[in-house]
Amino acid sequence: MATHVSGDNLRNQNGSGGDTAPLPPRPVRSVPKPVKSSILLAETILRDIVREGMVPGDALPPEKVMVDRYDLGRATVREALRLLEYQGAVQIRQGVNGGPYVQEPDSGHFASTIVFLLQLQRTPFESIVEVRAAIEPMICRLAAERIKEPALIELQSTIDEMNGHVDDDDDAYFRGLNARFHNVVAWSSGNTLFRYLADSLLDIMDGHVVGLSYTPRTRKGVIAAHQTITEALHTGNGQAAEDRMRHHLAKWEEYATMEFPAALRQVVPWSWPGPR
Fold first, then answer.
1. CA-CA distance, 185 to 195, in Å (whole number)?
2. How do residues 31-84 score in pLDDT, each as one tens digit?
3. Alpha helices (H) along the chain
4. Do residues 212 and 263 make contact, with C-beta atoms less than 8 angstroms apart?
5. Sign of the CA dihedral 174, 179, 185, 188?
6. 81-106 per-position pLDDT tens digit
7. DSSP label of 124
8. Distance set, CA 251 to CA 34, 106, 110, 138, 158 (Å)
9. What is the pTM of this model?
10. Element (H or E) spanning 90, and its range?
11. Residues with Cβ < 8 Å from 90, sequence gap 6 or more?
């Protein structure tokens, strides 16, 4: 039997007349637009970097050599390098030994792209909290299986240093140590995508841009949680590491919900990640 779908039902399914979330937009057929030469060149340069096994700190060919090699104009080469610089893959140095150099992109560019999209969609900060709570416990489980001794030493070092900054008036340094702890855990997972996802969320999750801050009491709670997580990582207990990270993030969310409910509803402002 055919089911009749009214206009009101359609509006409800698309989120404009009911409480359901809007459906993703249908793909629109369009005539492909020609890609700019500078974008194609940036893609080619990046492929050459990977193919030639270049590492951060290696010098790329001078601009004049690139003009001859790729048979493109100077302006196109410069724009391609600026695109790669914006993405964090290239550093343009000045001076006698200046020129383009390979650089290790950090998660700031990825985080900036995420925030850019979220701001356009007016996504509240609490959505970022939800995503982090979903993936970081799994990352912690993987880290327990793969973490190395130097990383464990680094984790304990951040905990020891945090203990010396519990009563600081400004919690900026404490926040940096907190981010360092979670970064080490993420990078110990051995999964590149998880690394950059976690790093990106941590860059956003700092929370100070929407008014979140720590008190001496909450700092002590963070330190205690980090210590129990480190102990689970040290023993290689993946389940315990996952559970303790999940509990840690849940307590943080509980604190933020009680003390900064308005901040959780704010949209994180986008900021320019590249050279200014």
1. 9
2. 566 678 999 999 999 999 999 999 999 999 999 999 999 999 999 999 999 999
3. 7-13, 37-51, 63-70, 74-86, 107-120, 125-146, 149-163, 172-187, 192-205, 216-235, 238-259, 261-264
4. yes
5. negative
6. 999 998 889 999 988 888 999 998 87
7. B
8. 51, 28, 27, 17, 20
9. 0.73
10. strand 90-93
11. 45, 60, 81, 84, 100, 101, 102, 103
Cα–Cα distance measured from residue 216 to residue 158, given in angstroms and rounded to the nearest whole number: 17
Q: Provide CB contacts within 8 A for 184, sequence distance 6+.
A: 151, 154, 155, 158
Find where tokens 């509803």 sit. Answer: 265
Write b or e for each residue in 30-42: b if 16 or more Cβ atoms lie within 10 A of its Cβ, otherwise e: eeeeeeebbeebb
C-alpha angle with apex 207: 202 to 208, nearest 5 degrees?
125
- The span from the CA of 166 to the CA of 206, in Å, is 17
Which secondary structure element, helix H or strand E, spans residue 32, and what is its range?
none
Measure the CA–CA gap between 26 and 7, rounded to whole angstroms. 18
Spatial CA neighbour of 171 closest among 217, 108, 225, 228: 217
For 131, the token pair is 């995503």
Tell me the three state secondary structure of residue 101.
strand
CA 148 to CA 257: how far, in whole Å? 35
Amino acid present at 114: I
